[in-house]
Amino acid sequence: MAFNTLSAGRDVALSYIDSGEPSSTSAYTTIIAFHGLCYTNNIFQKLLPLARNKGSRFVALNRRNYPGSTPFSDEELALVLNGGGDAKKEAVHHARGLEFATFIDNFISKNNIHPISEDGKSGGIVLLGWSFGCTFALAAISSACALPVDVRARLGAHIRAVIAYDPFGIGLGLPTPPQKWNPLLDPHIPDAHRLALFNLWVGGYFDHGDISKRDADGLSWVYPSLDHIPTAFRMSLAQREDVTCFGEVGFSDLQYAVHFTEQFKASYSKVAYDPETLKIFPALKSLALFGEMSGGFAITCLWAIEDELKEKGASALKVKSIPGWHWDDPEKALEEFLA
């Protein structure tokens, strides 16, 4: 699928796919989506024609290092791969947030995107992060305080929601249980096979016990359900090659997830609880959306969010579960994203 590019700041451009402006209305809602680890923006391709038919617009960007977008500099990549001091890591993650916010602002100006309607139910922009992409959708919001006043005002008038869709605890800086398992981190799996196995595993459906018991031992962590075909097996070879990105790019994302958890937590906390951040986005609604048969990593992240909400009290963040996910049931997923 062909993509466009748009500036995200000095010497940085991000590639994106775009359903285009719907013909039925000019006051439409635009979804800007952030892909996950090892997946490109084409994982959202099924949603583009559906969005246009529903009178909305769907845009999916590629993050740095992914096809068509500016790769990391040698210095940036070294910090991602090896970590560093907290100040350097904070600067790197903050810079990513500023790039995404700048991309969004430029997209608003280039396409004359309508601001949020008076009733808050139409127009404007919904940021959608899937899996590791949740981390960066939140960073676009949390970094906005460093932007020029006019840019902050424009973003505040347009961004009405941010959705963290199937996040995992590390990506939000939240605690994870000892039962957690991920093929990317299993030393018994040869390095050369971990990313490919991750693709099969993360798109599986999992038969959990009674989730209401909040028992991590009752969750299915490793073995997907035999009653639901994993998403990777529903794709053709061409589709799999189109939506996945392994090798050095996938490895750099994995290292980013390992080394920057404190920065992820700070970003998430700003969006969920910080009044100064929320002043910039007065209409902002935050939603954590979970697939009922997603892996144990997503279910325990849901519990961690609920525990923190109970502890801290007031927050703009809400949680909700849905069946299935966007590749296998794109129409239902789009309904949830636009709700």
Summarize the structure.
With 339 residues, the protein is α/β, with parallel strands linked by helices. The protein has helices at residues 47-53, 74-82, 86-111, 133-142, 149-158, 169-172, 191-202, 231-234, 237-243, 247-259, 261-273, 275-280, 296-312, 330-338, and strands spanning 4-7, 13-18, 30-34, 57-61, 125-130, 159-165, 285-291, 317-322.
Task: Indicate the radius of gyration in whole angstroms.
Answer: 19 Å
The residue fraction in helices comes out at 40-55%
Strand order of the largest sheet: 1-2-4-3-5-6-7-8
Number of strands: 8
Major sheet, described briefly? 8 strands, mixed
Strand content: 5-15%
Overall pLDDT metric:
93
The coarse silhouette is globular
Structural class by SSE content: alpha/beta
What order do the SSEs take from the amino end to the carboxyl end, as H and E?
A: EEEHEHHEHHEHHHHHHHEHEH
| Unreliable runs | none
- With helices defined by DSSP (H or I, 4 residues minimum), what is the helix count? 14
Distance between the termini: 27 Å
